[in-house]
What does this fold into?
Amino acid sequence: MSKWKMPPVDHPVHAMIRDTDFAALTAARVAKLPTMSQARAHARDAFRIGPSVNAYTALVLRDDGAIVLKTFGRRGGHRTRWNFGFFPTPPSAIDEELRQLMAVV
It folds into this structure.
């Protein structure tokens, strides 16, 4: 069983993601996911570059550590399409562990 809350097969979000992408997520990859402000900036860039782009969808790492699929609109609105849940180790704990490792070396 997956540690992620995946959408059912008949849900529209299911077509946007692959289960294998989540199976391959490691703590380091989760820590590299964009935050809400970074994803919003990426969306603005995408809208500026492509005038025909009407929506921008991205996996976002929320401040509380949850991974969500967000869609950003051209006028600045955003909607959470799916909440996949939390990575077993919160990113702040990963940062602390890395700091401790760096201090030892």
About this structure: The longest strand covers residues 78-86. The longest helix spans residues 36-49. The beta strands are 55-61, 66-73, 78-86. The two ends are 37 Å apart (CA to CA).
